[in-house]
Design brief:
Radius of gyration: 15 Å
Helix content: 40-55%
Structural class: alpha/beta
Order of helices and strands: EHEHEHEHH
Low-confidence stretches: none
Strand content: 15-25%
Mean pLDDT: 88
Shape: globular
């Protein structure tokens, strides 16, 4: 059984290595085969170079580079189109979604659920971000 982790990336060069390290550490315990798909959504920082470096260091990591910023949903769709997993987890690359939580999601899926969702109860966002999310 293969597990795919898809993460849209936008100007997040500083978190990519930590994200992939934490995902790999979590998945070794539960998944025989896994892939991490990082989708660069038109970043203007060094995100793509960091993704390429991660891919070169770990064959479980794949990178997709969109030619411009299409938005998070399109980046996720691009990742889904290239995923090979029997199970797919979509998570942000900013580390507010903790990779260790994948274990709990996967355990629920193994109990027979077709879809498993997680909801963040405490956010680390600044006031303006929380307000704009609430208004949306």
């Amino acid at each position: 059984m293969t597990l795919s982790i898809i993460s849209p990336v936008y100007n997040s060069a500083s978190t990519i290595s930590v994200l992939t390290d934490e995902i790999c550490e979590s998945l070794v315990a539960i998944a025989g085969k896994f892939e991490i798909i990082l989708v660069d959504d038109g970043s203007i920082d060094d995100s793509w170079q960091t993704i390429e470096k991660s891919c070169a260091l770990n064959s479980n990591i794949k990178g997709i580079k969109l030619d411009e910023n299409y938005g998070q949903h399109e980046a996720i769709l691009a990742g889904l189109e290239h995923s090979t997993g029997d199970w797919v987890v979509v998570m942000d690359c900013d580390l507010q979604d903790q990779p260790k939580e994948i274990i709990k999601l996967f355990e629920k899926a193994q109990q027979g659920y077709d879809v498993v969702l997680a909801r963040r109860t405490k956010r680390k966002d600044h006031f303006f971000k929380r307000l704009s999310s609430h208004l949306y």
